[in-house]
Design brief:
Layout (H helix, E strand, L loop, with lengths): L7 H8 L2 H14 L3 H13 L5 E5 L5 H7 L5 E6 L2 H14 L5 E5 L2 H4 L6 E6 L9 H11 E10 L3 H16 L11 H10 L2 E8 L3 E8 L3
Parallel strand pairs: 1-2, 1-4, 2-3, 4-5
Antiparallel strand pairs: 5-7, 6-7
Helix pairs in contact: 2-5, 3-4, 7-9
């Protein structure tokens, strides 16, 4: 089980392989963005500030980035530890004629963050739950958010804890070192508010919470 971020890049790269990336890309092309990406997209549109640069952390196949580029974002930086995900995102960017508007960055965000510029909007869709060091990940993300931070995370309810525990047990049986986490929402809120952000909106599904925050002085 992961206890630090020293091997997260390797573990995530192996877990989110070509098969998963192809599945997610095909699903996006047929069905559009998933539930949390749709909520993040719509809440960010309602909150404004979609006229600058997007930093999409743990971008996957780039679904949220493409949705926001279609709604006013001028440029997107996609960061992911999975080379398969970035290859799928690059394929879709070319398919949409968006390659010139996107920068692809391979690696754990905690490792590459010092090399990246601040962005108008920072997003983390289903990313916090994949990372063992959520506080550092949030803190680094907040430092890059000029106006908005938006992210989704598993709800802190008993049935989600059970589902995540079962998924992790199955991974253990298959000798897959990747783990998912249900981090405490109150602690995440403290980290975000301490950085000078105020929550603008929250939406929930049965499994996920989606929050949008604004820098208080923006």
């Amino acid at each position: 089980m992961m206890s630090c971020n020293c091997c997260f890049d390797t573990i995530a790269n192996e877990h989110f392989d070509k098969g998963i990336a192809r599945r997610d890309l095909d699903r996006y092309r047929k069905q559009g963005p998933g539930s949390t990406a749709r909520l993040l997209r719509d809440l960010l549109v309602d909150a404004g500030a979609l006229d600058g640069v997007l930093l999409d952390i743990g971008a996957g196949i780039g679904a949220l980035s493409f949705e926001l580029l279609d709604r006013g974002v001028k440029r997107a930086i996609l960061v992911d530890a999975s080379s398969a995900y970035l290859a799928a995102a690059s394929e879709e960017a070319a398919n949409r004629g968006r390659s010139d508007a996107i920068q692809f960055v391979k690696g754990d965000f905690l490792d590459v963050a010092p090399e990246l510029p601040v962005a108008t909007v920072v997003t983390l869709d289903r990313v916090i739950c994949c990372h063992p060091i959520y506080e550092r990940l949030l803190e680094a993300s907040l430092k890059h958010a000029e106006r908005r931070l938006a992210f989704s995370y598993p709800r802190d309810v008993w049935y989600v804890h059970v589902a995540v525990a079962l998924e992790n047990a199955l991974r253990w049986l298959r000798r897959n070192p990747f783990r998912a986490f249900v981090h405490p929402p109150d602690r995440m809120t403290q980290v975000i508010e301490r950085a000078g952000f105020t929550r603008l909106a929250r939406r929930q599904t049965w499994q996920w919470s989606v929050d949008v925050y604004a820098r208080s002085d923006s």
